[in-house]
TrEMBL record:
The protein, known as: Sodium:proton antiporter
Transmembrane segments: 6-24, 31-48, 68-86, 98-121, 179-201, 208-231, 251-278, 298-315, 327-350, 357-374, 386-409
Species for this entry: Nocardioides aquiterrae
PANTHER family, A to Z: CNH1P, NA(+)/H(+) ANTIPORTER 1
Domain (Cation/H+ exchanger transmembrane): residue spans on this chain: 17-411
Upper classification of the organism: Bacteria, Bacillati, Actinomycetota, Actinomycetes, Propionibacteriales
């Protein structure tokens, strides 16, 4: 992308990020919907070439940009959750019951169903599994309309969430991005090493268990160290909470991700665990709200920038390899697979209306692009044009459907709860 186009697209994204939330507050239209539409229109204009729209030629750029967006979103999500998770208290784990059900039952069912549909459609087994893994996790970036608003602080703050729908969708989106990685690696191993029998034990022991545990533990350690320094250090210069230095959110994000990756764990899980651990310290302190605000604003800017570029790419050939099979998979995921998998996972959990809302609002988004670009860097067959077209179509479909329904459905649930 030329420097002039960078400034043009970034400046437009920043302006829209400032005005759209308030402008669209009363309409069944979300900011992501508008940005994708604006990008589509820009793509139809004689915009100069030079933008990184071809995923085959710009895979690394796409991977790193989308990785950053997801990381910022995970930090914001972790700081936004008020419901504590005490690892040694069974009652605390039970309060997260709906989240565990979606992760342990709903997500594998979704991966298996999408992979089966892709395989039936003619995709190679490795590509089919990757499609299931990339599209299964809900997205913390585009699901802001159905997530908790932010941390409650002050002397009268609540220590728990009173909105089960928003809490469940938020906590699920924070955790399932890291938990999708074992299945992404399974697709990579299937494409590069062949038969499952050659790598099954390694996958279970290292990719499914060890890397998850390492990612969570490193995030907890980094979160505790940073929280101690920020709130209770003997050195006044280290007690940044007293000064309200909200850029600590970015420092914590980068540190947790770096430590988690260097240790061999999943950095996404490390970032979310770090944010949750930091949030657990001095829960009533206003510093949490300040940090969350920084992460939220940066996430909004980066998200709208990516969506604007995605919209331009859609009208300039990104959907060129999309066929009716890819369309069918995307439609099935949004309207059938996720709702059914979510409903089965939440059977006997939550009230009926809440259960339906959580099952339906499985927003797909930028995380799916990251997984696809990451896997494509390890095996060429996992970066086919058909996969890019199918994933892009599914994201746009999710943006339109979930974006249009989020505000009215959540408003109705709020009124029913009151």
């Amino acid at each position: 992308m030329t420097a002039d186009l960078v400034y043009l697209v970034a400046g437009g994204s920043l302006l829209l990020a400032i005005v759209l939330p308030e402008l669209l507050d009363r309409w069944a239209v979300s900011a992501p919907m508008v940005l994708v539409g604006v990008g589509l229109l820009l793509g139809l204009t004689p915009l100069p070439d030079g933008m990184p729209l071809d995923p085959q030629e710009n895979r690394a750029t796409i991977e790193h940009v989308t990785e950053l967006v997801v990381l910022v979103a995970l930090m914001g999500v972790g700081l936004a959750l008020d419901r504590p998770l005490a690892l040694r208290q069974r009652a605390s784990w039970r309060r997260w019951g709906a989240t565990w059900r979606l992760l342990g039952i709903g997500m594998p069912l979704t991966i298996g169903a999408v992979a089966l549909l892709a395989w039936v459609a003619g995709a190679p087994p490795a590509a089919a599994l990757l499609l299931g893994a990339a599209l299964a996790p809900t997205d913390p970036v585009l699901a802001s309309d159905v997530q908790v608003a932010g941390p409650q602080t002050g002397d009268d703050h609540e220590v728990d969430e009173d909105d089960e729908v928003r809490f469940t969708l938020t906590s699920e989106a924070g955790l399932n991005d890291g938990l999708a990685f074992p299945f992404v690696y399974a697709a990579i191993l299937l494409a590069t090493e062949g038969a499952v029998s050659h790598w099954a034990l390694e996958w279970v022991g290292w990719y499914l268990i060890a890397k998850v545990v390492i990612g969570v533990l490193t995030g907890i350690v980094v979160g505790r160290l940073l929280a101690y320094a920020a709130f209770r250090s003997n050195s006044r210069s280290l007690r940044v909470a007293e000064r309200g230095e909200s850029l600590m959110a970015l420092a914590a994000l980068v540190t947790a991700y770096g430590v988690g990756e260097v240790a061999g764990g999943y950095g996404f899980l490390a970032v979310f665990a770090c944010a949750m651990t930091f949030r657990s310290a001095e829960r009533s302190h206003d510093y949490h709200a300040a940090m969350h605000q920084v992460a939220e604003r940066l996430e909004r800017l980066l998200t709208l920038f990516v969506l604007l570029v995605l919209g331009i790419a859609l009208s300039r050939g990104l959907l060129g390899s999309l066929d009716w099979k890819g369309v069918a998979i995307g439609v099935a995921l949004v309207f059938l697979v996720r709702p059914l998998a979510g409903t089965l996972a939440l059977h006997g959990c939550l009230e009926r209306g809440e259960r339906r809302a959580v099952a339906f609002f499985g927003v797909r988004g930028i995380g799916s692009i990251y997984y696809l670009s990451y896997a494509a860097g390890h095996a060429d067959e996992l970066g086919s044009d058909w996969l890019w077209s199918t994933v892009s179509f599914t994201i746009v479909l999710s943006v339109l459907v979930h974006g249009a329904l989020a505000a009215p459905v959540m408003r109705r649930l709020d009124l029913a709860r009151r």
